[in-house]
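Query structure, 297 tokens:
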């Protein structure tokens, strides 16, 4: 049983509502509900009854609240004692994010790292998987969120999450919410070059659909890809998390691919050891953040 789930449980009890608790914790209600469900499975007990105004602890929940508060207090006392005897972590930790993962995890990581490790400086690079992979293997990045498993001599990859891919098009195209791959292939497409993981996935799907896509440009720059789509040059295929701001602003649209569903597996990858204490601490912190902020499948 993880202490963070106990913290979530206590916060729900205090707030009396999943919505209010999620807002206080800085996470989505869907993620908080998922963590509560895991805790109830672990305890083999229902912890809350739903009411018209929120939630109320069951008898089991009341008992759990008393024990959880004691456990969390003891954990904090232990942390305080250890910190008092430990050297303060310091140093630089270099991290690479793809466009979507930077938007999801970058700010939460910066916030938590500043709170927990004020003497650790984060060096953050946003790029495409090919470039980030090369930097991880060369030891220029301590960690990177990648689109493929790069486990090899010294390099280790841990699964993060899986996300569906959508057609992302300028709003001016006025495309429907669901499209077939053959229809997508007729559009002016902006895709990454063949050396990128995403392109390999796209090419395989179009071959399976017996369709040659109308690729008007190959772009390996995240910033230029976004600017070109927003400007109406063409459409691309990406996870929604990479386009959250543009989708919210209404400058692009997302369409589901109905006949050949595409999805990406994201991996948290570490450079070859040895690892510094600061790098280990940031790795552990990032794993916590991924659980709380990853897109709900």
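Result returned for the query:
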């Amino acid at each position: 049983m993880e202490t963070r789930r106990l913290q979530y449980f206590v916060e729900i009890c205090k707030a009396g509502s999943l919505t209010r608790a999620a807002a206080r914790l800085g996470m989505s209600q869907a993620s908080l509900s998922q963590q509560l469900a895991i805790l109830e499975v672990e305890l083999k007990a229902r912890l809350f009854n739903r009411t018209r105004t929120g939630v109320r602890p069951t008898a089991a929940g009341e008992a759990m609240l008393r024990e959880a508060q004691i456990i969390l207090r003891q954990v904090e006392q232990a942390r305080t004692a250890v910190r008092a005897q430990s050297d303060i972590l310091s140093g630089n930790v270099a991290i690479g994010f793809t466009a979507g993962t930077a938007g999801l995890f970058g700010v939460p990581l910066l916030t938590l790292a500043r709170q927990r490790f004020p003497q650790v400086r984060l060096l953050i690079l946003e790029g495409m998987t090919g470039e980030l992979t090369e930097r991880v293997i060369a030891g220029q990045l301590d960690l990177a969120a990648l689109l493929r498993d790069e486990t090899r001599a010294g390099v280790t990859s841990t699964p993060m999450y899986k996300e569906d891919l959508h057609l992302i098009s300028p709003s001016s195209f006025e495309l429907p919410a669901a499209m077939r791959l053959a229809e997508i292939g007729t559009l002016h497409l902006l895709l990454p070059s063949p050396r990128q993981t995403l392109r390999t996935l796209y090419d395989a799907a179009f071959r399976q659909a017996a369709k040659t896509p109308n690729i008007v440009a190959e772009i390996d720059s995240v910033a230029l890809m976004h600017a070109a789509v927003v400007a109406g040059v063409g459409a691309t295929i990406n996870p929604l998390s990479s386009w959250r701001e543009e989708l919210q602003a209404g400058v692009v649209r997302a369409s589901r691919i109905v006949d050949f569903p595409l999805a990406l597996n994201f991996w948290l990858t570490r450079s070859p050891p040895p690892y510094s204490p600061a790098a280990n601490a940031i790795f552990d912190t990032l794993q916590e953040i991924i659980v709380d902020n990853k897109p709900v499948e």
